[in-house]
């Protein structure tokens, strides 16, 4: 397993990631790979994500979302987040079973940071998350 050293926070030393995924198996897989490195909250659709974002006094550092969900899908979630100034700064990484390894979604949103094909490869997941965190420094 890759140990990530540069995602530290002042409060408890762990960044907060909101996982938005409707597949319970994928929720467990992603959570398994990230639980030792980050504080995680897992929800099943975009509406639940908005509830967490609105109710949590300590903001999320990153959102990891599926694209295809029945209630509020990931693309609409990204669009809505991009329209709200306090959420626009939260990087969003998309996970998709419809995207191939070397493909990239061309989305024109300030908060969109990239896409990972499903099933996610742990090393690629860690790298993409830390790239997103490092891009927000400064």
From TrEMBL:
Residues 16-133 form the Response regulatory domain. SUPFAM superfamilies: CheY-like. Pfam families: Response_reg. Keywords: Phosphoprotein. InterPro entries: Bact_response_regulator, CheY-like_superfamily, Sig_transdc_resp-reg_receiver. GO terms for biological process: phosphorelay signal transduction system. The modification 4-aspartylphosphate is found at residue 66. SMART domains: REC. This is Response regulatory domain-containing protein. It comes from Roseivirga spongicola.
